[in-house]
Structures are given as C-alpha cells and as structure tokens.
Description:
Blueprint: H1 4-14, H2 24-35, E1 43-46, E2 49-51, H3 53-69, H4 76-84, E3 95-97, E4 104-105, H5 106-120
Antiparallel strand pairs: 1-2, 1-3, 3-4
Amino acid sequence: MTYRIPLVLAALLAAPFAHAGPGPQAQREIARLISSLDGSQCRFQRNGSWYDGSQARAHLQRKYNYLLKKDMVDSAEQFIERAASQSSMSGKPYRIQCPGQAEQTAATWFGTRLQALRQRTP
Length: 122
C-alpha cells in the first residue's frame, strides 16, 4: 500500500500545474478579436476616457495575459466577458465608437466580430 502514496502525492502536486487554457481555435479567435481594433478608426472608451485602437489592443492584450496566467479564459466568449466588456477596476462597461456607426458596448461590438469570424471560417 505504501507504493500508492507517492503516486497520489505526485498527482496532487501536479494538479495546480495542469493548465488547459484556450484551444488553438479559441486562441486564434481571441488574437483576431484583440487585433480587430488595432489600426481601425474606432475609438475605445475605458473609465470615461477614449483611446485609439492600438492603445485598446495593448490594454486588452494585458488583460488577456493576466487571465491566461490565472487560468481564467478558455474561449473567445470568456475573453469577451472577462476582459473586453468592462473595467475590472471600476466595473464600468467599455464602449466602442467607429466612424459612421452608433456608439455601442464593447461586449456587443466584440460579440458581433466573433460571429463574423466564425461565419468566415469553417
């Protein structure tokens, strides 16, 4: 019976390091969502201030990296919900305004982008 103790102990010690994270498709989707504002004419509002696309991309990439380290994101939907929808500090929703379009919540904007990505890729 003592030979089982090291196996159980090894399994328990390895459990915190088992990190699934997003699969390859989700990684591609999230990368495309993050980069979708970069280089666009859209503005990104965070905590009452407007930022250009490259600043928004950098901010969302930092939030995504944090979620990855904490093993808190497995899908594009989770990325939108946990990183791209609202400020984790104030709880205020992010907003996006693109030329010729009505201002909208970032959650709606990214959700629409995700649907479009999925319709283009089989």
